[in-house]
Amino acid sequence: MNILQTIFITPWSSVFFVGNMFDYMALLLPASLAAAFAFRAGLCNLGLEGQIYAGGFMAGVFLIQMQRYDFFSTPLLFTAALIAMFTGALLAAFCAFLKKVTGTNELITSFLLSAGITPVVNYFITGPLRDTSGNLLATRPFGRYFMLDRLLPPSSLSVSFFIALILPLFAFVFFNKTVSGYRFRLAGDSPDFARYGGIDAEHYWIPAFSFSGALGGLSGFFGVAGTYGMLHQNWTGGLGWAGIAVALIARGDPLVIIPAAFFYAYLKSGTDTALLVSGAAFESSALIQAAVLFFVTARRIFSIGKAGI
């Protein structure tokens, strides 16, 4: 019972916990939208983890290099965000290109590319770029002039929260209020019917995966420039897979992704806090998190019994 109280109550007990919870939500929103864009095109991007990690890495390298000069400005952060988005888009587009040209399944290529690029990034973070003056497997901190502004110190919440909160609204408008968005959805929901109407479903594979990867890269930028202010080994911690889970919970609906991301961030904040405060075993908090997510996403728990199936 103490563990349950810690999970569901402690996240609201201080500014630190609340800020960190909403900061994780800010990372989840673009990541889950990235997964949703791929779903809407009838695809599945299993390489989000690597796209987020690589996008954040390239943005971090750029910010580290800029520290050599005696100037700082908002355009530098904007440029770093674009670099992160381009990196994620490039990795994802390559997988979609292989699918379109060779017919290779995008689940396999995106997953393998993500698994392959992670140790490469780790090598640079723990090797040539590592800050040897500290004990962390990380680069030196960027400095506050090369980070997004913090909102609720001492938490890690930054202005990325407001940017992330706007993204689902743009996605909703695109999918539901534009002709391109309608064709995009139709190509993913019913490729055969789309072809009958003169819409080539394969035409949307590369744009969909590219935009999915770009949103993943943006999540990586939010992580390194907003949450951590440095590059450290394996900082994503399953963020890409969490984004896929949130997109599945929301069933790809951009507006539903907002409360779904909040719920997931709230649950993760609670389970992480339980580990720190109560000394609970990792397995117990993970089991509670999995059970709650199961009951939230299950659609036929009671109807199965009533139907006698």
Protein topology:
Layout: H1 2-9, H2 15-40, H3 48-66, H4 74-102, H5 106-126, H6 160-177, H7 179-189, H8 191-196, H9 205-228, H10 239-249, H11 254-277, H12 282-297, H13 301-307
Q: Could you explain how this protein is built, in words?
A:
71% of the residues lie in helices and 0% in strands. It is mainly α and 309 residues long. The protein has a single domain (2-307), classed as ABC transporter involved in vitamin B12 uptake, BtuC (Orthogonal Bundle), CATH 1.10.3470. The model is unreliable at 300-309 (pLDDT under 50).
Short descriptors:
309 residues; mainly alpha; ABC transporter involved in vitamin B12 uptake, BtuC; 13 helices; 0% strand; 71% helix; disordered C terminus
Question: Could you name the CATH class?
Answer: Mainly Alpha
Q: Beta-sheet strand percentage? A: under 5%
Proper CATH architecture:
Orthogonal Bundle
Helix content: over 70%
Structural class: mainly alpha
